[in-house]
Sequence to fold (134 residues):
Amino acid sequence: MERERTYIMLKPDCVRRGLIGRVIARIEDKGYQITAMKMMQLDEPILREHYAHLADKPFFPNLVNFMTSGPVVAMIVEGENVIVGMRKIMGKTAFEDAEPGTIRGDFANTTTENLIHGSDSPETAEAEIKRFFG
Ligand code: UDP
Ligand code: MG
Fold:
């Protein structure tokens, strides 16, 4: 399988709770490489783009409030099959479905504040890397 890259973002709850190091350790333990990383403050326009598929959901305003509530850590992560691999390490979106042993399963107790974002396909990975790293 070929080497891929994905866009990973540690959300404001992860930063606020002091879990940046523990979450990054899991990514590095897996053997993936972090090839770019920066802390940044998001605003509503970039979130409207990033979460365009969710703009009509009732939870969207709450999601924007949360995602602008503090800084995030944006990363490019590389490795073989890393897009699917990171989604596995992250765990399912809904906190009650996220298995123990996954980041969300071990640390999240709400669906909105679920610590981490990871691209869901090669196309979204490239679009998200462009969006957040230019
Ligand atoms: N989200 C939420 N309520 C929901 C579904 C999603 O607040 O019922 C939030 C949650 O933070 C999630 C993000 O919206 O991570 C993006 O949703 P998506 O379905 O893309 O899930 P993901 O790809 O992050 O697992
Ligand atoms: Mg998603």
